[in-house]
Amino acid sequence: MKQIVKNFNNLIKKTIFKLKKKTNNKFHVSTFNKYIITAISILFAYIFYLLIPLLYDKNWVQNKIVSKLSSEFNINLTNSFDISYRILPKPHYLIRDSKTSLAEIKTLNVLISQNNFFNKDSIRINEVFIEEANFSLLSNDLKPLYKDSENKFSKKKIKINDSNVFFKNNLNEVISIIKISNAFLFFDEKNLFNLFDLKGEIFNIPFELNYQNTINSQKNIKIKASDIKLKIIDKFFKKDEDLNSGMNNISILNSSINTKYSIKDQIVIFQSDGSKTLNSKINYNGQLAINPFDLNLKIDLYNYKISNLFTPNSIINEFIKSGLLFNENISVHTLVNIKSTKKDKIFNEAKLKLKILNGKISFDKSIFINNNIGLIEVSNSDLFLENDKLILSANLSIDIKDPDRLYSFLSTNKRLRKDIKNIKLNIIYDFLGNEITFKNIKIDDNKVSDQFYNIAEGFNDNSSNNLTKSRRLLNELIGLYEG
Question: From residue 456, how far is each of 41, 406, 408, 428 by CA, in Å?
Fold first, then answer.
């Protein structure tokens, strides 16, 4: 390029300056104009240089690009496609409507080096840029991510924008979809690891993922989902061909869940390692089968205020509202044993059961206990989406062990007290609207009056419910009940 500039300067001197002398100084070119003419000439020469690849044979170009994509980027195009050369924003070959074994790619930009267009055989790819692609992946297709250094990514970047990843099970059914805003992957020669970085969305939740796979079989994964205040850090170590182990940290809201785990034959066995949730100690252990997804989990939670489970911003509320549970291809059996803090005036103990099977979510046989008063048991529960609302429907059976303790807790007037043993009702709770409705109320198998339901509507706005308000409304209902 320097030689080109030099040649044009010499040309100007030999022509324009010579013309100036012959015209006896009647024709004058200023220094500024000389620079303008030189710059324009260089620009045109540069554009002509960039257009040289248009002269290459199209079939030769297609074969050359396909070969280099395969050998340098492991991108194997399997169909005929349209290819054209563009110089803006950088010299590149534009490939439309191509396919690989894993993806359908609407736009594939192959950025090439500008070093020597005069020698077509020296063509070199600098970077690959994929747009509007649909990737279809089975679990086996992800194995290269977990292999060692013999499965290095390309040393040159592959960028991906505005694309989708469809994860499928062995029956070719889609189990989840990731929408990719932007991503890139390459092998970092300086630090000797594969790097994959992604910003996207799953289950309508935006997230960021950073993955590093080092040559010594150590893998680091970081996932961040700010909308649900979630952060995951995972460190993975390969012990031998059949056994792997790792450490995982999940931070969500004010909780930190630390887990030790091992993996063998696609079964993950895990246990807690100093985890805390809302300043409460938590122990857990379980087993997870990856394909198909099947989780068995037992949790023991200590010194936790059980009534916090029913607040709008509780962990379980946020998790349910995230929509992660609504997947027909997962199976979950979870038991949570909770010992309450002394500050909880309502519950001393709880056994919370969560079951997910074939897309149906239930909390049946969950129990909430007050040692002095009695217990509440859940049955016929169902969690579902309806008209953009997240609804929990459940039957509650409230067994009262000691009515006097109940009335003492509620500060009920003695003349209003009745000998009540059992209350049954159906609740409809809208998680997103934070509204609760009571139906089919029976006290000791007796139906209640319409006026009883009118007073019970005072509980509908759950955001305004507190202990003082609840005591007042319950006492009104007790006074209204004829027994």
Answer: 86, 18, 21, 13
* Maximal CA-CA distance, the chain: 126
**What was the pLDDT predicted at 6?**
56
Percent of the chain past pLDDT 70, that is, above it, reads 86
Whole-angstrom Cα distance, residue 61 to residue 68?
11
256 contacts: CB under 8 Å, gap ≥ 6 = 249, 250, 275, 276, 277
Token code pair at residue 253:
């809201």
Tokens of residue 378, six digits: 């859940």
Distance CA 21, CA 357 (A): 94
Q: Where are the domains of the chain?
A: 2-50, 56-213
Using pLDDT thresholds of 50, 70 and 90, give the confidence band for residue 393: very high
Is the Cβ–Cβ distance between 223 and 232 less than 8 Å? Answer: yes
Band of pLDDT at residue 149, cut at 50, 70 and 90: very low
Question: Which segments within 4-137 are labelled E, that is strand?
Answer: 82-86, 92-99, 103-112, 125-137
Task: Note if the pTM is more than 0.70.
Answer: no
- Measured CA distances, 190 to 129, 152, 155, 216, 221 (Å): 23, 13, 10, 15, 19
Q: CB under 8 Å to 28, separation ≥6 — which residues?
A: 20
